[in-house]
Amino acid sequence: MPRQGAARTGLWDGHNIAPRRAKRPPAAFQATGNYGQSFSYDEFTPGYLGNTALLKGFDTYKVGLYVDFALTSLTLDGAPAPGNPFGSAVYSFGHRNPQGLVFHPTTGALYSTEHGPSDNDEVNRIVAGGNYGWPTVHGTCDDDIGSERPFCQANDVIEPLATWTPTIAPSGADFYLADLIPQWKGSLLFTSLKAAALYRLTLSSDGQRVTAKETLLQGQYGRLRDVLVAPDGSVYLATSNRDGRGNPSADDDRILRIRPKP
After folding, report:
1. What is the rounded distance in angstroms from the CA atom of residue 133 to the CA atom of residue 209?
2. How confident is the model at residue 63 (pLDDT cuts 50, 70, 90)?
3. Residue 111 backbone dihedrals phi, psi, to 5 degrees
């Protein structure tokens, strides 16, 4: 039984993650610099179950569609995925620095967490072919960094579901659909590095709006890199205090488990 949310670099059997290797992508898709390494298997594309990876874009890549800052959709062989909106590797564009990618377990909708520069960290709902505005637009189309509205109107920019200024450095994400923590059911969970917290977002019934936000565990365990929901409803968090930017304790780094008290 696969775990909730999107399988990351393997298959969850309730105890262990069995690695699943993809071939090394072509040089055009290999990033340099601080752009992260995570990806998410698409379990919802008919005929391509578990065969499509959505990779975070980086500013040196240009393939097919000449646009920077894109999410790319590839087969496990490193080729552009069939059905991509532009006939190339590009799935969506206008992203600055995506960190977490997760598919909703029942609808298949894709969500990302993204780092802004010194403002406007974002959570986005990803639409194939969508333009998310970067670098002209930071966050919503509100002219906070200059004339954003005309660009948004001319280019059909998709605005984020939520933004954070000051920035929080959002990282890994997962959906919670279990019954073990009933008040979290249906929530989008994501970790943060700078804010050192777990965030819980309540979404509208169509998944296109954030209706409530909750900040949890802030400052208790330092930088949090990722979150995973296990089949029994327990939530696992990975700390990231030994990455050169944290203040590690003797116990770091750790995997933390969240579940109700007996």
Report:
1. 18
2. very low
3. -125, 150
Q: In which order are the strands placed within the sheet that holds 235-239? A: 224-229, 235-239, 255-258
Which residue, 99, 82, 80, is CA-closest to 40?
99
Specify the residue for token string 């992203």: 95
Give dist(CA 10, CA 39) in Å, integer: 11
Smallest Cα–Cα separation from 163: which of 114, 206, 126?
114
37 Cβ contact list (under 8 Å, min separation 6): 56
Instruction: Write out the two tokens for 168.
Output: 């929080």
Cα 218 to the center of its chain, rounded Å: 20
Rounded to a whole number of angstroms, the CA Rg of the chain reads: 18
Kindly state the DSSP code that residue 153 receives in the 8-state scheme. H
Q: Which residues contact 21 (CB under 8 A, 6 or more apart)?
A: none
Rounded-to-10 torsion of CA 198, 172, 155, 109: -100
**Quick one: pLDDT band at residue 56, thresholds 50, 70, 90?**
low
Torsion angle in degrees (nearest 10) through CA of 67, 69, 74, 80: 0
> Whole-angstrom Cα distance, residue 209 to residue 124?
10
Q: According to the model, what pLDDT value does residue 55 have?
A: 55
Question: What are 245's two structure tokens?
Answer: 């930017």
Beta-carbon contacts of residue 79 (< 8 Å; ≥ 6 apart)? none
pTM of the predicted model, to two decimals? Answer: 0.83
Structural domains for the chain: 10-258 (2.120.10.30)
pLDDT for residue 131: 94
- Strand ranges inside 26-146, DSSP E: 39-42, 52-55, 70-75, 90-93, 98-103, 110-114, 121-126
Per-residue confidence (pLDDT) for residue 41, from 0 to 100: 60
